[in-house]
Amino acid sequence: MTISPAGTEHVVAGLHRPVRRRPRLTSVRVTMLLLVTPSAFLLLLITAYPLGYAAFQSVHDGTLITGGSYVGLSNYGNTLTSAAFWDAAKFTVVFTVVGVFGSWLVGLGLALLLRSKFPGRGLFKVLLLLPWVVPVVVSATSMNYLVATSSSPMPKLFHALGLGSPLFLADPTWAQVTVCVYKVWVSFPFMMLMVSAALSSIDETVYEAARVDGASSWQQFTGISLPMIARSTYISWILMTIFCVNDFPTIYLLTGGGPESSTTPLVVLAYRTVFQDFQVGPGVAIAFVMTLILVVVSTLLYRQIRKATYQ
Amino acid sequence: MAKNQGLGHVGVSRRGFLGLAGGVAGAAAVSPLLAACSSGAATGSGPLKFWDMPWGGTAYSPAAKRLTEAYQPATGLPTAQYQQIQWANFTQTFSAAVASNTGPAVSTGGGFQAFQFASEGAIAYADHLIDTFKKDGTYDDFLPGTIEAMKTEKGYAAVPWAIDIRVWWYRKSVMDQVGVEPPTTWPELLSTGKKLAAQGYYGFAAGAGAGQPIGGQQMLMMMVNNGGGIFNAGGELDLLNDRNIEAMEFVRELVSNKIIDPRAVGYTIDNVNSQWKNKKFVMGIDTPGLDSILGDTSGDLLVMKPLAGPHGDKACLTFINNIMMYSNTPSQEGSEAFLTYYVKNMKTYWQQNLVPGLPTLKSIVALPEFQKQKNKVDVIQDWQPIGKSFAAQATELTPALAKIDSGQAISSFAQTMFAGRTDAKAALRTFQDALSALIK
User: Fold this and answer.
1) Domain B48-164+319-384 is in which class?
2) Which residues form the signal peptide (chain B) (predicted)?
3) Which pTM value belongs to this model?
4) Which among A179, B7, B207, B358 has the fewest CB atoms less than 10 Å away?
């Protein structure tokens, strides 16, 4: 007879037939069940119920007030065949890829720089954290101040350098560049912290041994630092991917999704569809498709974490 | 053995846990019913909830609260309780409250909110109240066209309390410096704009960036000014009419002559206001309270006379801000009594100059405090009589207007026009297609 790890399933030798033994309802178990009930109830109330109602809305043609009539999967069908959805999906990918890898590269670079000891290093660390710490409303307003009008500092600087007069928020391509740069700006401190923490966990003797073997700085970086921080890196990528895909305020405050929808990611499209166009079913369908994509991407990255762990 | 016990140790199986979760889910499913029952009971008693938007500066809301709390209801009727609602996400706030029967009994709100909620059965029509106004003379005190704008097939969706108009403004000192006079026609607007552009100024103040609705309203006002509009007289979408195309071709001409700031596509409300303050914007379409919003007391910002389009048409865009009553109320009689009190006492806002909007009552226009405000008096005299609604060339306001006013289509259209890369007909066709899908 084999006992399963959970201790609840028994396999009778020869028959290979699982036999379930009903757990006894002891006073301890009753107490535990009672203790878990409020949490389970709250969890269901604040997560499962809205999720269930959103699923209901996505297959109905209701309004913000009424449920509407059942329309099957037509909201999903319309979403997946709409040009606006695919334009938003493309921009979401661009915004996320630039946001994740841009902020990671900047964060990695600064984390490596901050490993060396120099006067005022603590102050620099604090200053470099500011873009992440400052509320997004403040930093978005600051970014607007930097680029919006012809008398803003950045257009003046570009003009002074003979680089023309870019329309940072008014030209579709420049607006995409601006929001991506802004995203990197507000996100790199998080990456810097993650990488710094991972780098500090590497034993210095490993580098010493590598130096004794004649490894160059680049070889130490690619052969020791990067592999040793891989797990932390994948985790930070997953988190930043979720942050970027779900990033509503950055876009909404800076460009509102314009000009001409060029900076509209899926999350803003879903919001605008529900709360500005009052198309509740299609908007919720967009949100569900977005969530599905996010789950797939996160799962893929999570598998990378497991690989990195086993390596 | 007592410490670090996992789920398996206490014997809660997955099935057992799912059973528990199922029970809790059942309770969760019942909770909305309980909520509905409890909110239903709330309609019969308690104070009357009045939700109000921040219509003015910081002094407005305290004044509105005082006005509400000063209400002394007749015996048996509920008192009123003031609640300010922020403009940010106000649609969600109202919708969630109305859907859960926890919303207000009376409220101000978005210009088309009453029509939107009326179509969902959440509004108490004001016909009885309007009849009362007709009997006591209040009806005749309303400026022409204001109450009529609230009328739908089923009745009056709300009661007007303030007028919001889009009018042309100009900065006199810069105009004098450049040596130009305020234009009175579109051709003059073009020639004046060119002279201003030559000096580094913009003759058509515009903005269509994040959270900025003025751009779409400016485009619609140009269409209406030229005898066009979103709808035809029968209420059907009619964006591709000749007048609209002509108006938008004119806008393209303004863009190509740099009379419109090329960065306007991305301008927020703050950006537009700062361009006015910095005197980069010298002429433009804006709200009737632009001078007070900018804090300009110099008398340098003045309201123009209405411009005549190429065919001689003169018109502007008007929004009637209104107070609506909801079917979910402790007392319909109480709602009407409070609204009557409010309309008859709201003059305090204009006496104290607390709101940038214009009054809907002739008696308030006649107040000496209001008559001192030259720009607002000019707007009432010159612009209010030629006002047309968002529904132009149709006359009746509909729930669909809320989708158009707040929607993505009109802001994208304004951005397209200000960018100046697309010809007018193509831009209008895209706009029409987007609206067709929206209001089908």
Assistant:
1) alpha beta
2) 1-35
3) 0.84
4) B7
